[in-house]
Design brief:
CATH architecture of the largest domain: Alpha Horseshoe
Radius of gyration: 23 Å
Strand order of the largest sheet: 1-3-2
Number of domains: 3
Shape: globular
Order of helices and strands: HEHHEEHHHHHHHHHHHHHHHHHHHHH
Structural class: mainly alpha
Helix content: 55-70%
Strand content: under 5%
Oligomer: single chain
Length: about 475
């Protein structure tokens, strides 16, 4: 079973110092630095890691508990030098570098980069082969490892929408980025790539530090500002992405990420304006034939319009999502999200039959979801079909548990709150949202709350308004 990122961090802390007692205080500092969490958070994380490793607390083979003090990694650990692991040639090379004299290596890396920039999932395997060829031809060229890290990370992103994202791919990508850094410590792109991958691992403080280092090394490259914007939150994200667009204006995905901050701040008019700018840019660029085509802009704009009561405008935008190129890396994810939001818009308009069609189409495109099951439960209730509603809710609860087991804790918490809404347990829903903001240590968690259709009935709740206020403060 692939380990979620937090488990990998714990394993690295313990296995990095085999046989040594690692105190609970050390682990809290390493894993949740500056974040208030309960003592039980570490106990639970250790239990989950043991389950992943097939270990038992009573007869440990890997992780030994030292009562009231901490933990010790007791399995044999072989230390491997990263640079030497690249290849014998790399270890003995007189100079580690971010350059190569080989045209064949440059061609392979350039072709791989172009394949990645298309954001076409069908080209990822070809990109991986190009980067592997570059490494085989010149094992001292850091760009080959950095490109391979990006390609493996985007493969991981393709799994991120599932109940169990492939955390092993993410770990491989991070390792490859670090190999690139070991070969060329001053290679800005290696620092920036590592920032991108660490963000995917929810290690945002480390990610921001790596992105800032990339900017310090190469201050006029737009991509490093994008990586910082992706890792950061609130005003730092907006400032970084503004600079990104100044340096490289034809980058519509920056508008999506900026709009997330405005949504979290409940500045929906501003979010709408930013999204419309991004959509206009994408249309001028010609969609799929541009570098780094963006997905999700129409879905988020439709969600913003629906939150502001414009059902017709929302449906028009949602229908446009995913029309440009369904091969794009995130196309299916946002096409499915658009179908779900269409379902809520149809329900708001009283069109139960069309809502039912939208939710079922969403599940047909991607079965590993919670939202469409909740939507179908509401549809069944509107039709007074109690058995069907119960079945849909049962499927939703099973899906929430699968999200949680797969390491998608934030989405599981949001959907647990949403399930409480469908069950008319509004106070329990607010409890879950409050807990999410208190326990999650990365800023953008829960950003979608102001435009999540399932939470609209909470508009009159003072407690929910307080939650949204805290969300907005985190985005400031």
């Amino acid at each position: 079973m692939p380990a979620p990122p937090r488990q990998l961090d714990l394993l690295a802390c313990l296995a990095g110092h085999p046989s040594r007692l690692i105190t609970r205080e050390e682990l809290f500092e390493r894993l949740w630095s500056g974040v208030a969490v309960t003592d039980n958070a570490l106990t639970q994380l250790v239990s989950e890691l043991r389950q992943t490793l097939g270990d038992r607390s009573g007869d440990p083979q890997y992780v030994q508990t030292v009562a009231r003090r901490g933990y010790r990694f007791i399995a044999p650990v072989e230390r491997v030098d990263v640079a030497a692991a690249v290849s014998p040639a790399a270890a003995s090379a007189p100079g580690r570098r971010a350059e190569t004299s080989s045209l064949d290596v440059m061609r392979a890396v350039t072709d791989g980069r172009l394949q990645l920039e298309a954001l076409d999932a069908s080209q990822l395997e070809a990109a991986i082969q190009n980067f592997k060829q570059a490494i085989a031809l010149d094992p001292t060229f850091a760009a080959g490892y950095v490109g391979l890290a990006n390609a493996h990370f985007w493969q991981y992103e393709g799994s991120r929408f599932s109940f169990r994202p492939d955390a092993a791919l993410l770990a491989v990508a991070i390792s490859e980025a670090r190999q690139g850094l070991a070969l060329a410590p001053d290679y800005a792109e290696a620092h920036a790539t590592l920032a991108y991958l660490l963000t995917g691992s929810e290690r945002t403080a480390e990610a921001c530090a790596a992105a800032r280092q990339a900017i310090a090394l190469q201050p006029d490259f737009w991509g490093h500002y994008f990586r910082l914007g992706h890792a950061a939150w609130g005003q730092e994200r907006l400032d970084a992405l503004t600079r990104c667009l100044q340096l490289y204006p034809p980058f519509p995905f920056a508008y999506f990420q900026m709009a997330m901050v405005h949504v979290a701040r409940q500045a929906l008019v501003k979010a709408r304006r930013v999204l419309e700018e991004g959509i206009a840019l994408q249309q001028r660029l010609g969609g799929a034939r541009s570098r780094f085509p963006a997905n999700g802009l129409h879905w988020m704009l439709g969600s913003v319009l629906l939150a502001r009561g414009d059902c017709a405008g929302a449906l028009a935008e949602l229908a446009r999502e995913g029309k440009d190129d369904r091969r794009a890396l995130y196309a299916r994810e946002y096409a499915v999200a658009a179908l779900n939001t269409q379902g809520w818009a149809r329900l708001a308009a009283g069109d139960v039959a069309q809502a039912d069609t939208a939710f079922r189409a969403s599940l047909q495109q991607h079965a590993e979801q919670v939202r469409p099951h909740l939507g179908l439960a509401l549809v069944a209730r509107r039709r007074r079909q109690a058995r069907a509603a119960d079945d849909a809710l049962g499927a939703a609860r099973q899906s929430i548990e699968q999200l949680r087991q797969g390491g998608r804790a934030v989405e599981a918490s949001l959907m647990a709150a949403a399930e409480n809404m469908v069950e008319d347990r509004h106070e329990h829903a607010v409890d879950a949202l409050e807990s999410l903001l208190l326990q999650t240590d990365h800023g953008q968690a829960g950003w979608i709350m102001p435009i999540e259709p399932l939470f609209r009935p909470l508009a009159g709740s003072q407690r929910f308004r307080d939650v949204l206020q805290r969300l907005a403060e985190r985005a400031a």
